[in-house]
Design brief:
Length: 410
């Protein structure tokens, strides 16, 4: 059944650039005698030289072996004195060659380190694109950051664009000490991009709608109101389901491929990164995050509605905690249990206990996720899939096309 799911997923979502926009030349020979199933990221990665792009100081590329046996290409851009590192999962119809200049500018403007990677079957990465492979791909990139570059989990910000929101949300749901998550034009699920389905089917992919409530860190959602590939409602719903909502950025007139061209994009992103950078790492991060998010219930001056290309959360309901935290339970004045603890104390104790249990080593990524992929049982006859598959595609667009005239002026 897992094979059927992977086949359907490939038809749904993946359109790697053909031919790749860059090349690679090995700078280091493969280490002798290294088993593909090994867990040492330092041993399973080696430097490569990217060709077809302009070399820049501070840029390094590596070939990483994943737990599923493919070799992916990852690109690291270092920024002096940066305290945060962004692990960036790009959108469809892109590879590292197309993202090269954007990554360099991204690193320089918010002053962060950044690692981008190509999914299996994209760019010069080996293998074939599939949902399961992208989960293994982002795990390998994360391991490389921790084991090769010495990055702490608490200093990593996960960034997922479009299809990249799938592996980003999946990883964030398993790592409870990640500093923050940014979701750029995210999808609720692969099938929901094409159809307004009300429930999740076994053959659907990137089920962000089910995983985003499991993410414990602050989440920033960015979406264009004129997105004709992934409807704006996807970003809005993802934001509503997030546990720790940060003030979202709804860009008036922004489409699926040009949000970076709006000046408010980098301003709001820098504001978010600056805010989460001040959060303490570890157990104290959760209550401090709540203070951060509570402070964002009021729109800030830097994202006022007077700006022509921005629609902020003022047009939606303000950020709020989930309903179970909004109001304490009403107690009868006639019968009050004097020994009952307050709701606040219980919630705080529960949060601390969960935090202490949720700490996971990077070695836990060697678990077999294929079991999870096979647990979904078919709810519809396979015979009905043929017609659906033939008509499906996700983000089959050039995500780096030139912006339209109306956005160039921005």
């Amino acid at each position: 059944m897992g094979g059927v799911t992977s086949s359907v997923a490939a038809k749904f979502a993946f359109f790697p650039p053909d031919p790749p926009s860059y090349g690679v030349v090995d700078e280091e020979p493969p280490p002798p005698g290294v088993a593909p199933a090994g867990s040492d990221a330092a041993a399973l990665s080696r430097r490569v030289l990217m060709t077809g792009v302009l070399w820049r100081e501070g840029v390094e590329a590596r070939r990483l072996r994943t737990r599923r046996g493919t070799e992916i290409i990852a690109m690291y851009v270092g920024c002096p004195k940066a305290s945060l590192t962004v692990l960036y999962s790009h959108g469809n119809a892109a590879d590292l060659g197309k993202m090269y200049e954007l990554f360099i500018e991204f690193s320089a403007r918010p002053h962060v380190n950044i690692m981008g990677y190509d999914y299996s079957g994209y760019g010069r990465s080996s293998g074939k694109a599939s949902e399961a492979n992208t989960f293994a791909d982002i795990e390998s990139a994360y391991k490389c950051l921790v084991e090769v570059y010495g990055t702490r989990e608490e200093d990593i910000v996960l960034y997922g664009q479009s299809v990249g929101s799938g592996p980003t949300v999946d990883l964030a749901a398993h790592l409870h000490h990640i500093r923050a998550v940014v979701l750029h034009s995210p999808i609720l699920s692969g099938l929901r991009v094409m159809y307004s389905v009300k429930k999740t089917y076994w053959f659907d992919i990137y089920k962000n709608i089910e995983k985003i409530p499991l993410v414990k860190c602050p989440v920033l959602v960015i979406h264009g109101t004129s997105d004709d590939v992934v409807d704006f409602s996807h970003g809005k719903r993802i934001w509503e389901l997030s546990q720790q909502k940060y003030e979202p950025l709804w860009i008036e007139g922004g489409d699926h491929c040009n949000l970076e061209t709006f000046p408010v994009y980098i301003r709001h992103l820098k504001k978010f990164l600056s805010a989460v950078e001040k959060l303490p790492a570890g157990k104290e991060a959760a209550p401090e995050s709540e203070k951060l998010l509570a402070g964002n219930e009021k729109p800030s001056d830097s994202v006022a509605l007077s700006e022509p290309h921005l629609m902020t959360s003022q047009r939606l309901e303000p950020s709020r905690k989930s309903s179970r935290h909004e109001q304490p339970p009403r107690l009868s004045t006639e019968r009050v249990d004097k020994h009952r603890r307050s709701t606040d104390v219980r919630e705080k104790a529960r949060s601390i206990t969960h935090k202490e249990r949720s700490r996971r080593s990077v070695d836990t990524f060697d678990r077999t996720r294929d079991e999870n992929e096979q647990t979904d049982k078919p709810r519809k006859s396979i015979d009905r899939l043929g017609e659906m598959i033939r008509s499906m595609g996700l983000c089959n667009v050039d995500c780096f096309k030139e912006p339209s005239r109306k956005t160039e002026a921005c």
